[in-house]
Amino acid sequence: MSWIEIGLEGGRTAYRPGEEVVGAVAWSLEEGEPPVSAEVRLVWLTRGKGDVDSDVVASAELPSPGRLDRRELSLRLPEGPYSFVGRLVSLVWAVEVVVEPGGRAERTEIVVSPTGREIRLHPDLPPSS
After folding, report:
1. Rounded to an integer, what distance in angstroms lies between the CA atom of residue 66 and that of residue 62?
2. CATH fold group of domain 3-120
3. 115 pairs with which residues across the strands?
4. Average of pLDDT values for 37-45?
5. What is the rounded CA–CA span in Å between residue 116 and residue 91?
6. Model-level pTM?
């Protein structure tokens, strides 16, 4: 059985702009075509009504990936945009790892804001999950 994991240092999921996201990625791939590339990415995406917008803000190629592998990760967050929850749309940050071929991937969501909490555009909205 194949698996991919992302572990952030100290289990941390909330960050302030400009901070560094540190951790490790690991995977175990079943027999078959060996991996030819692996990449860790820092991304944001929108959720809710309408089209999904997204952007890869930073990425790091993980050279010579093996079937069973573990790599350290370190990506610097930009100054924005901030994580937020609105009535119609929310903005979510994530750390992703993608192993090719096959587009095998895993994503761990994080929060990026000056307070370390997602911005709630309407006070009566519950935090996103």
Report:
1. 10
2. Immunoglobulin-like (2.60.40)
3. none
4. 97
5. 14
6. 0.90
